What does this fold into?
Amino acid sequence: MTMKKLLVFASGGKEPDDGGSGFQELVENSQLGVLEAEIVAVVSNHKHGGVRTRADKLGVPFIYFPLPREAEDYQRIVAETKADFVSLSGWLKMVKGLDPTRTINIHPGDAKRFGGAGMYGHFVHEAVMEAYRAGTVKCSAVTIHFVTEKYDDGPDIFRYPVAIRPDDTSETLAKRVNKIEHAWQSYITNLVVKGEISWDGVNPSSLKVPAEVPILEVR
It folds into this structure.
């Protein structure tokens, strides 16, 4: 059986030691067999940032992706790497032109409530903490969903609540959310590349997810 090829998009930070931990987890779990896919390359919008540092250490081809980032540019990278699937792991730019049946994103919150343009990283955690203090939410979450050309709008394939503690800050919450992301991302990605999680790219009712995968209510 031929192993599927996975392309990772990960922004990370501008500095050489900033970001890319989710990408590294995917690579290491691919090497361990948890993720049954070959990671063919990682793409970042930072030429010399943390993602490149990790890619070089891990021996994964690095692709710098500056402007323009139009549909044909995304499609060209996928075609050149011969990727079967795409994982957005901390990719902070709008995605255009990718196959919504083969592209997934991980979001550090409830994507439907705390998603959309500008809602990434610490912005999500700050918004969640503000809602918690206002009494409108009791927890945060990690969401993995298929990707369409509208921010965080594709159907959820994984949703896992993360407790908020009374003494939490956005920083302490972020660390706990990140642990859940790392624990589940490779497992869920593996189910996607194996075809056990799927949809038709148009109708959310076509979504197929194994019963054992948690898509839990976030309060």
The radius of gyration is 17 Å. Helices lie at 21-32, 50-58, 71-81, 121-133, 170-193.
